[in-house]
Amino acid sequence: MAIEPGDIRRIVTPAAAPVTRETMRADIARMLHEDPEEIGNGDSLLDLGLDSMRAMNLVLKWSEGGLALDFAEFAENPTLDGWWALVEARQRAGG
Amino acid sequence: MIKQQAHPLTEAQSGLWYAQRLDPANPLFNTGQSIELTGPLDRAAFEAALAQAVAEADALSLRMIDAAGEPMQAIDPAQRPVLEVIDLSREIDPLAAARAEIARDMATPIDPTRDKLAAERLFVLGPTRHVWQQRIHHLAIDGYGMILLTQRVAELYNARRRGIAPGALLPGLAVAFAEDAAYRGSEKREKDGAYWRALFADAPDVASLAPGNPSSGPAFHRRAVEIEAEVFARVKAVAERTAIPWPDVVTALAAAYVGRHAGTPEVIVGVPFMARLGSAAARVPSMLMNVLPLRVDVTEGGDLDAYLGAVAKSLTRARRHGRYRSEQLRRDLGRVGGLRRLHGPLINLLPFDETPRFEGLTCRLEVLSTGPVEDITFTFRLHGTDGLRLEVDANPDLYSIESVAAHAARLAHFIAAASAAEGLADIPTATPEEMRRHLFDLNATDHAVPDTTLAALIEAQMAATPQAPALRFAGEDMDYATLERRSRALAERLAISGDIVAVALPRSLELVVALVAVLRAGLAYLPLDLVQPDARLSRILASARPRLVLAQAEDAHRFKGEVQVLAPADWPEAPAGNPLPGPAPEDAAYVIYTSGSTGEPKGVVIEHRAIVNRLEWMRTHYGFSAADRILQKTPATFDVSVWEFFLPLISGACLVVAPPEAHREPLALARIIRDEAITTAHFVPSMLAAFLTEPTAKGLSLARVFCSGEELPADLRDRFRRTLSAELHNLYGPTEAAVDVSYWPAGADDRSRPVPIGFPVWNTRLYVLDAQGRPQPPDVPGHLFLGGVQLARGYLGRDDLTSERFRPDPFRPDERIYATGDLALWRPDGAVVFLGRSDHQVKIRGLRIELGEIEAAAMDSGLVRQVVILAREDRGTTRLVAYVVVEAGADPSTLKVAMAARLPDYMVPAAIIALDVLPVNANGKLDRAALPAPDFASAGQRLPATPTERTLAGLFAAELQLGAPVAAEDDFFALGGDSLSAVALLLRVRAAFGHDPGLGALFTQPTVEGFARLLEAQAPAQDLGLAPLITLVEGAPDLPPLFVIHPAGGISWCYGRLARALTPRRTVYGLQAPALAPGVPPPESLEALAAHYVEHIRALYPRGPYHLLGWSVGGILAQAMAVRLAEAGAAVGVLAMLDSYPCDVWRGEPDPGEDGALRALLAIAGHDPDRLPALALNRASVRAFLRASDSPLGQLPDAALDGVVRVVAGNNRLVRQHFHQRYGGSILHFRAALDHVGRDLSPAQWKPYAAAVEVIEVPSLHAHLTGPEAVQTIAPVLAKALAVTEASEETRCATAG
Questions:
Q1: In what residue span(s) does the Carrier domain sit (chain A) (predicted)?
Q2: Residue B1257 φ/ψ, nearest 5 degrees
């Protein structure tokens, strides 16, 4: 089977530590200049002060390990629970 | 079905809808992109994927309905785009063909109420090469929506290829409609609106990178650069360090970049906002995006992280309220209209790779358009994983393609520097290339100049050409040998006189001898102007402390023993032969005092080396030679005079010294330039403007004219070219840098607007620096600094002021720069453009004025507690106005006298306005806008009495555009006149009286009565009777005068007999053609001539009624004047014609030409040309014939006879081009009954142009109508008509009263 160009890109991308709910919580907290415990699982991240550029930055950061995350899906339901569900589903699907 | 239901537009769509309706031909409302697909495309899979995606994306099927009152929209499947496949594989260059077709398509506007909003096109370039173009109207989609749609097509394609199920469907547009409706009525929207309104309550005006009025154009310029990977990595490290997303870091840096160009402490940029986070409509391809206005404080000083943190915080807050439409905010704030914008440049961050992934294919995405570009947009696009591209899109109305490329490179560099900076202050604005070019390449002016002195150069010239003429003044010449002898003799006498010698002589040969002698004695000369008040002279003398002053004996009292006076009569004539010490290059050559802001004049000390550089540059650069004749007309106290005096003397040329005061009199200047064959002259631009209006200046030819001292307006340059034949050069420089430091040829091919001050002269540097001392990039205003050999030593005795203005050169060790206080910019071609003063200093007619000095003079009077001086621009002239709060009990009317005692005349305010308090704004600062405009009202009581006074009063009012009548005692200058409007007034005086007594006379006699006396006293000795207005009979003062208008020849003498035959005797004025005088151009039209006459007679006799009579062409003019008078509401009495016929009759006949004009001249003189067959019809023989005959015309000089011929020819042309308007009164027509046999001439032909025509048959020929027989018939009828009209006029007035 020929190597697809898209695959080449994924191969050269360095692997990152796997994303977990807690790393996500920590990343969100850092973006909001808050402590991780301030980020409740079901809190609206918008109410906590998250904006689209920060959200997009987080999604991009979490994709760095090769996970195919789609910001559009994250935008629909911006809570830690909602986002973890999206990440977990992609991780199970193998990227 | 819900999909066919009509919906109102969403808020997001509404703004676009109205913009599109305002500019329906603009194709940029179509957004678009193209993707090059390389590799084996599965065409069937692609077509199926696309069909499904466009079916899911409802917005692409929208149909817009332009319903009355409110636009609506409906989803209509018939509007859905269908993939169009275009095979270009047979083209020679298929890719180029595809690009051309895409460009054509993107440049085609669509009508959203009729056309499909979207198009999907696939270009087949070859088996493994395709280009997919999407074009979708902005009403249907935004940039993020386009990504969603494109990604969906890729997802469907990949799923189909792999045979797996694709992800979730795109949500329908109904979700977006519902969200929009919910937000519109929500409390959130209220809060968002309140947030924005509060934030923008005190927002400043928007500044941008280019001046002009931004509005969407149909195209944009684009230039892109790649941000270096290393820079991008550093930016991300900054983001990491500050916990601010890197896109916000880049936004903040781009805003700082905008601030550098706007030059304001705060900028407002626009930040596109996707408005999708947390929205159910997040995944709907549709138009949701908003542009958030971001206020950014770009003040430098703090550290970079603090700045970035502040901007990031503003961005977060803005996004939290980001659904509130900026169009709505703009309406809320009343910021509507091009210049009242909400934000300036857009900064658009796209921190994700938008390129879709089609398996098995490589894709290259190009975004073609994201909507109209009003101003300039900086887009940062992530591509691949780590590539960042900067695209600069700009409105071509405001930016050239070169400036767009420059911004792309400069901003990329700015970000690179910022990524390593600790504070904004560390970041240069210009790129290293721009800095090198501006600081060094453009200033590479090194040129070898002999290290010598001005005295040595002049001595060398005097020795080289002793017999050549050196000076000329009032018809008297002085050769170089005489100049050598006399200046040496005086220099020997001066050599023991300290280091500064004052020179206070009027323009004369002695003045030049004095200056040369002072230089040869090794001393510096200090020019003094005795027009200045004693107080100012004393201050200058106290500061400079000259031991000796060279002045006329009669002026000695001005120095009151403060300093010894040596008058020309006491100068030694012959040299004793003592050796002269002579100066060294570093010795002072002259000291010129300029206005100082502290109230104390400042003495600028210029050394020989500096002025030698300036003069040698000028001599070489413009190729001056012994053949030149240079006019010296600038007062010696103004440093322009320095080159006027000495350039000829180092070039072997002749220095022609204008008489004292001539520099302000255009007529005198025109005469001297012509008579003395001047090759080179200097004008301050405002004086040049006055000079160009002088009729006798037209057509003068010189080698070159130099302008300096103030801004040269481009219109004036253009007018110069139409008026004079000469090169025009614009020079710039302060007294502090040896006259001029830059030059610009404003020649025939110069189209610059504004006219630059140009490039540095030899060994000179120009820097345009920002407030922090950094060099500016092209087109960005900054402070102008000067460096190089021409800088002054400093201010005499004022080391404090010297070190304030003369500073170390930051770019060249051991050099100095001078802070000019002027604002300037570098054009892209390197020429410097002057933009005005950075402080309150103003220039009036080239003379630098520190308002502080005037304010100090007002305060020193002890009469005022507070004072503000403003230079107000009023009807095109700048006037100084003093606003004062007077001391209790003080009389403000004495202030002007007190100030005039301390200040030169050009610094004395034209008006003094006393206020109770000076108005201040909310910040406690002086509110300049609230200061009232001065009212230059009449102060006099006595009505003008004599005809001269009446005319003159009318001319004052016309020149100063006064609404109110002018009294006999009114002073022209107190009414708001200045020396420039005085020049214009004198032109009017000359047109009305045939001569003017000159500007000096107006200064000494500025009142109506005084100047009228002068005018009458100085009437030309040899009155030729050709004045524009002559009095034929002086009659009873209570009877309205009769105005008679000249026939074709322009002379009104012919009416003398008729005038004298009228009883009762009344005043009869004859109007004569102004063009009889040489140099007065012929009128543009008969209409214009009539208007001029109306202005003249109304000024002379404002009361009316106006009785008019004209013979032949004079009758035509009288009718046109009657029309104008009636239009203006003035009463017309009798309108009488002596055998005149309307222009329609003459229009068809051939122009009689010069022959006809000469025949008419003979007829005017009383001869029948047909009876003189032997007389050759040329000017010389007709003149000779008239001389030999007894006609008074024969007494006229040749020039006047030529004037008559010109006027006749001109009148023939005017008559043929004139079209009558209807006059509402009646015509009294005296017809020459014995004439016109066989010609179709009848008074009835006037009927269309008057209410009635009364015809009196006079048994006479046309040519004899003013002869004795005809006058016997005409005079009684006319006198009766005049009396009847006046009686009815009185009755009417009485009834009305």
A1: 15-91
A2: -80, 120
